[in-house]
From TrEMBL:
Residue spans crossing the bilayer: none
GO terms classed as biological process: fatty acid metabolic process; sterol metabolic process
One Pfam family here: p450
Secreted is among the record's keywords: no
Swiss-Prot/TrEMBL keywords: Heme, Iron, Lyase, Metal-binding
Gene Ontology MF, one: oxidoreductase activity, acting on paired donors, with incorporation or reduction of molecular oxygen
Cofactor(s) it depends on: heme
Annotated heme binding sites: 434
Name this protein carries in UniProt: Uncharacterized protein
Record-linked Gene3D superfamilies: Cytochrome P450
Keyword match Nucleotide-binding: no
Family matches, as InterPro entries: Cyt_P450, Cyt_P450_E_grp-IV, Cyt_P450_sf
Family: Belongs to the cytochrome P450 family.
Length: 483
């Protein structure tokens, strides 16, 4: 099933954008309470789609007063209209990473790091080029380093199940992810560079203080007003997490000297600015992304049950045996394994929101109608609805493990938007696609490969977390066949 993209058909009837922002100040407050407390995230959007009979409408997005000076957005919630957010010729991405507000640059040493820069800004190409070059230089390190980290992770999971009958995957995975990222960029363990065994918690606090306006803690209704006042009304000050961030920054600054030399000498980026960008990529993009993605992937694979586990184990073990090891070539031959990962990214994208301002007056298409958007208006996309568009995907709410297998399945990859671009595109200095897009997919493949080389099946208990899923391993059944 497929449909034209936003630019392929301009013959749709032009209609006014439905929806309302309500009264000044109070309309934004009402929408914020609906979003966090009265309706919840998905119902907030679905109720408005039903009310207006449109997947494109006007609304306010949190946090609103007093953190955001202008919470008004135009929501684009189908796969066709959402694609306008990927068009850098029409959309400006300056300071919109977190939506209608931007955390203070004091969280990043006073610098606007690459994620907040629009491609039209001169620094963007230099800094993103530096990041892409750094990742490329580590290409041969990814698989052996990550496999070593996963070996320790699975040993810890087994120990926890043996001793406690349960293993908290999130905690163990977070620690593993931090160690992997630090080793990747700094060529050594965190403890060798003055960081404690729980250094990832400093990243957790730093992330929370930047993202708190977008989070609800799920407290009782009695405490909703208190939470709203603390988390959604005023920004939390950066000095409360400065000491932890400084430890991380200093560790990267002292141990990633080769990378920082490259930034200065080849890309003409000041050393301190390069290091703050490196820490942001490591902490916000890489560690933060893995923190959300790995539990989600494990959850969806677990829900596939023993039948899916058997299919994955058969494919993985067969290909690894044929190829003589876990190599890029081997990973590329695992069609079901790849499909499972794309399906997890489709149904539960690690970054659910995309924002951008219209650079010009434009016409944006949905499936059946078109809308005019004025220059300067903020456009918002809620990715989980766009990538579960029933006009594109059959059974969109269902996890279909082989959805992307075969020629027809691969055609659907153009509608998987998790990386701030289509899955069929690649990151460049001229776009805003995640620079680690290919690394993320690679790590997910290696995670599943290592899991099913060791185990035939597993069981978990899953629940909702602040930003993602909480996963606890209950059992692991060791592989009955080995290679």
């Amino acid at each position: 099933m497929a449909s034209p993209t936003s630019d392929e058909n301009n013959s749709r009837p032009l209609k006014p954008i439905p929806g309302s922002y309500g009264l000044p100040f109070f309309g934004a407050l009402k929408d914020r309470h609906d979003y966090f407390y009265n309706q919840g995230q998905d119902e907030f959007f679905l109720s408005r789609i039903n009310k207006y009979g449109s997947t494109v409408f006007r609304t306010n997005m949190p946090p609103g007063p007093f953190i955001s000076s202008n919470p008004k957005v135009i929501a684009v919630l189908d796969a066709v209209s959402f694609s306008v957010l990927l068009d850098n010729s029409k959309i400006e991405k300056r300071n919109v990473l977190d939506g209608t507000f931007m955390p203070s640059t004091s969280f990043t040493g006073g610098h606007r790091v690459c994620a907040y820069l629009d491609p039209s800004e001169p620094k963007h190409a230099a800094i993103k080029g530096f990041i892409l070059s750094t990742l490329a230089s580590k290409h041969d390190t990814f698989i052996p380093l990550f496999r070593a980290c996963l070996s320790e992770l699975f040993a810890n999971i087994e120990d926890n199940i043996r001793d406690n009958n349960v293993a908290n995957f999130n905690d163990l995975s977070d620690n593993m992810s931090f160690n992997f990222v630090f080793n990747l960029f700094c060529d050594g363990n965190p403890t060798e560079h003055g960081l404690g065994p729980k250094a990832n918690i400093d990243f957790d606090k730093w992330l929370f203080f930047q993202l708190h306006p977008l989070i609800t803690l799920g407290l009782s209704k009695f405490l909703n007003l208190f939470e709203d006042l603390v988390l959604h009304t005023f920004p939390l000050p950066s000095f409360l997490v400065k000491s932890g961030y400084d430890k991380l920054y200093n560790a990267f600054y002292s141990s990633a000297s080769v990378i920082l030399d490259e930034a200065e000498n080849r890309f003409n980026i000041k050393r301190d600015e390069a290091c703050h960008n490196l820490v942001f990529v490591a902490g916000f993009n890489a560690y933060g992304g893995m923190k959300a993605l790995f539990p989600s992937l494990i959850k969806w694979v677990a829900l596939g049950g023993e039948s899916l586990h058997r299919q994955l184990a058969d494919e993985i073990r067969t290909v690894v045996k044929e190829q003589g090891g876990v190599t890029i070539t081997a990973l590329n031959k695992m069609s079901l394994t790849k499909s499972v990962i794309y399906e997890a990214l489709r149904i539960d994208p690690p970054v659910p929101f995309q924002y951008g301002k219209a650079k010009e007056d434009m016409i944006v298409n949905s499936h059946d109608v078109a809308f005019q958007i004025k220059k300067g208006e903020m456009i918002f996309g809620y990715q989980p609805l766009a990538t579960k568009d029933p006009r594109i995907f059959d059974n969109p709410e269902e996890f279909v493990s082989d959805r992307f297998v075969g020629e027809e399945g691969e055609k659907l990859l153009q509608y998987v938007y998790w990386s701030n671009e289509r899955e069929t595109q690649n990151p460049t200095v001229d776009n805003k696609q995640c620079p680690g897009k290919d690394l993320v997919v690679l790590m997910c493949r290696v995670l599943l490969v290592e899991l099913f080389l060791r185990y035939d099946t597993f069981t978990i208990k899953a629940s909702k977390l602040l930003l993602g899923s909480s996963v606890k391993f209950l059992s692991l059944t060791k592989a009955t066949t080995t290679i």
